[in-house]
Amino acid sequence: MAGNRLGDSEDEAGQRNFSHEENGRALGEGQELAIAAGAWRDPKGGKTTISDWGRKVLDAMVVEPGTLYNYEGYWRRDIEPRWGAWGVADPTHLEVQQWVNDMVRNGPGVPTVPKVYFLFAQIMRAALRECLILYTPCEGIQLPKSPQSAHRYFTQPEAGALLHEFAAKPVVRAMVDLSLYRSLQRTAVRRSGRIAY
């Protein structure tokens, strides 16, 4: 039997036995105040595994099928293997930040890391809303910035090949010619939807 500062103990079945009625009453009043203040949480709720909780959250999501397919992949590949056995109240902010950093170095790649993190943060916010945890460790996590792609311009031979390709189509050739001389990037011309590469 283990005791605590209120002078109570637990029996083998895990039931609390108070040595003084006042201690039991004080604990009850403290719980009532926490409930009224919105700060109470089920002490057993935080022990719910992230594996069980995450599955419930994924099953309850209302998202497009393609999004759900991506979420299921992030869950199986990146979230459940790392956090599945943990209770929802166990991860700390530093542990989540370290996980994000590890994914950047060894995981799915910089463009995918924020998407994986966003799903994990949704799962933890759902635990917060359901009063399983008092705070989410996902607040204030620093995510990687996607690297900016370098501008790529046509070389002289590429520009000549394009002009030659569209020589028989004067309107298209005029557009290509204008684009080339206005120093537009390949991506800008591609986005116009008028020339297929």
Q: Can you give me a brief rundown of this structure?
A:
This protein is mostly helical.
Describe the structure.
The chain has a two-stranded antiparallel sheet with strand order 1-2. It has helices spanning 21-37, 50-60, 65-83, 93-106, 113-129, 156-165, 170-181, 186-191, and strands at residues 8-10, 16-18. The N and C termini lie far apart (76 Å). The protein folds into 3 domains: 8-40; 46-129, DNA polymerase, domain 1 (Orthogonal Bundle); 156-191. It contains 8 helices and 2 strands; from the N terminus they run E-E-H-H-H-H-H-H-H-H. With 197 residues, the chain is mainly alpha-helical. Helix 2 (50-60) packs antiparallel against helix 3 (65-83), helix 2 crosses helix 5 (113-129) and helix 3 packs across helix 5. It is 54% helix and 3% strand. The longest helix has 19 residues, at 65-83.
